[in-house]
C-alpha cells in the first residue's frame, strides 16, 4: 500500500486521478480510434508531468468483462496494427518498453534473432495450444502474456510491412488465433 505503481500499469478502469491534473496534461488522445494504447499513452503523459501513481488496496474496481480467447487474440492484433504505430510515432522512447526495439536492430543482432524466434510459428503454436487447453486448468500468466504479445507484435509487424490501411481492412472480423 502506498507504493508507486509504474505508469505502464495505468489502466483507467482501475485508476483515479485529480480532475485538474488530468486537464493539465489533456484527456485521452483521440487519435486512438481502435482497441488499445490510449490508457498507456495517457499514463505516460501523466508520468512525464510528474504525476506518480500509488497502489491503494482499499480502492476496488470490479470489471467483470471476460472475453473469449479468440476475441482477446483479435483485439491484441488490432492493438498492434492500429494503435501501436500511433503510440510509437508519438512516443518513440517507449519502443523498448513495448518490446519493439528489435525492429530497429540489424537482422543479425542477438536480440533480433531471439525475438524472431519468439515470433516463429514453431514456438507460438505449442504455447497457444497450451494457453487454450490451460484455460480450464492452471497455466502460468507468462504463457498468456506471450500469446497477447505475439498477436500485438504480429499486428505491428504487419503494419510495418503494409503501412497503408485499406477500406477492406477487417482484422476485427477475422480470428487472429487461427
Folded structure, characterized:
The structure is a single chain. By secondary structure, the protein is an all-alpha fold. Helices cover 47% and strands 2% of the residues. It has helices spanning 19-25, 38-48, 69-90, 110-118, 121-134, 141-161, and strands at 4-5, 53-54. Residues 166-176 have low confidence and may be disordered.
**What is the tally of helical segments?**
6
**Secondary structure: number of strands:** 2
SSE sequence, one letter per element? EHHEHHHH
Extract low-pLDDT stretches: 166-176
Binned, the helix content reads 40-55%
Main sheet, how many strands, which sense, barrel? 2 strands, antiparallel
- Radius of gyration, Cα only, in angstroms? 18 Å
What do the pLDDT scores average to? 87
Separation of termini? 42 Å
Summarize this, please?
With 178 residues, this protein is mainly alpha-helical. It is built from six helices and two strands.
For this entry, give a set of tags.
single chain, about 180 residues, mainly alpha, two-stranded antiparallel ribbon, 6 helices, globular, disordered C terminus
Topology:
Elements: E1 4-5, H1 19-25, H2 38-48, E2 53-54, H3 69-90, H4 110-118, H5 121-134, H6 141-161
